Amino acid sequence: MARAGHPKAYHMKNELIPELDIKVKQPPVLFTKTQALVARLAQRLGGPLVAYWNGTRGSVCHTDVVALYHVLERLGQHEVIYLFLKSDGGSGQVSLRLVNLLRQHCRRLVALVPLECASAATMIALGADGVQMGPTAYLTAVDTSLNHALSPVDRDNDRVSVSLNELQRVIRLWREQQGEVPENAYKALFQYVHPLVIGAVDRAESLSIMLCRELLAYHIADASKAEAIATALNSKYPSHGYPILLDEAVKIGLRAERMAADVNALLLQLNACYSEMGQKATTDFSEVRAHSNEIANIWESSGAQVYYQQDKDWFYRAEERRWITMNDNSGWRRIERQGTRIKRGALHVA
């Protein structure tokens, strides 16, 4: 039997690969440091801080809702909650659920954005009564891309995301180059993108605008103003990752303002701790076998931290030219302070 923290033996082409005496790397968990910074920020802001951080392989996802609920139940009800956001995005529908949950625990929500707050994270910021942005902060457009079961595959045989804006630009360029009597552009496109994918992306675009309107309705009573902001974020910008800086955010109608320098400095310190926690800890056993540990998503407030850790064995399947996972022990973990004790355990999310 393999010892804890070490890989098991595997049979490959009738050859037994013995257990290797290599310790599996683990990412650091800096609960004491992050709690100290959370406390300093709460004191400076005059209200509790909830931190939400995504690593490079993390995203806004449905299990985030239960993780946030666990943090908020401990935090309780408050007049105002300050929300630190650092994320490259994810599911817009989850953004609506997260904002709804946050606003059940406060009368006023303020988003703190020191760095990137992209795509679905921008949607979360839309649900806040105010957005404070640091010198390096940016929001992005929220036009939807979709990773569908019938999407095209990349060179690693993985499904790629398709956006409506990209499809529309391909169609427009194709028609412009065909002259006055263009053929059916979609007929040519169907060779590369399945028609059901195109239909799904079009539906997702309509959903994105609706989600923006719903989020803005939490604090903007003027429906026409909310519609104008939602439309701008979904169709004004030529790139999904176009950086919307403070002045541009104000121009399109968001209640954005410059963040105080000392608050920004503390948030950058907190981000540095999370970035250290989120570093990829890969243990290589051979050219075809490895183990990865990585913290992807973090929620934290006073006395509690919940994080999602990827914990997997990897095996390279040469005939498919891709890595596959085995022994996946990934999941949410929680750390809580109970008096002078710190309690650690799993957070089971169905």
**What would CATH call the class of the largest domain?**
Alpha Beta
Count of alpha/pi helices: 10
Mean pLDDT: 84
Integer-rounded radius of gyration: 23 Å
Q: What best-fitting shape do the alpha-carbon axes yield?
A: flat
Unreliable spans = 1-19
Give a quick account of the main beta sheet: strands, pairing sense, barrel closure. 11 strands, mixed
Named at the architecture level, the CATH assignment of the largest domain is Alpha-Beta Complex
What distance separates the N and C termini? 30 Å
Into which percentage range does the β-strand content fall? 25-35%
Fraction of residues in helices?
Answer: 25-40%
The name of the CATH topology of the largest domain is: 2-enoyl-CoA Hydratase, Chain A, domain 1
Overall tally of structural domains? 2
Overall SS class: alpha/beta
For the structure shown, list the relevant keywords.
eleven-stranded mixed sheet, flat, 2-enoyl-CoA Hydratase, Chain A, domain 1, 350 residues, single chain, 10 helices, two-stranded antiparallel sheet, 36% helix, alpha/beta
Explain the overall architecture.
- The protein contains ten helices and 17 strands.
- With 350 residues, the protein is an alpha/beta fold.
- It has two domains: 26-141 and 239-347, 2-enoyl-CoA Hydratase, Chain A, domain 1; 144-236, no CATH class.
- The strands form four sheets. Strands 3, 4, 5, 7, 11, 12, 13, 14, 15, 16 and 17 form an eleven-stranded mixed beta sheet that branches.
- Helix 2 (63-75) packs parallel to helix 3 and helix 7 packs antiparallel against helix 8 (223-235).
- The longest helix is centred in the middle third of the chain and has 22 residues, at 195-216.
- The chain is flat.
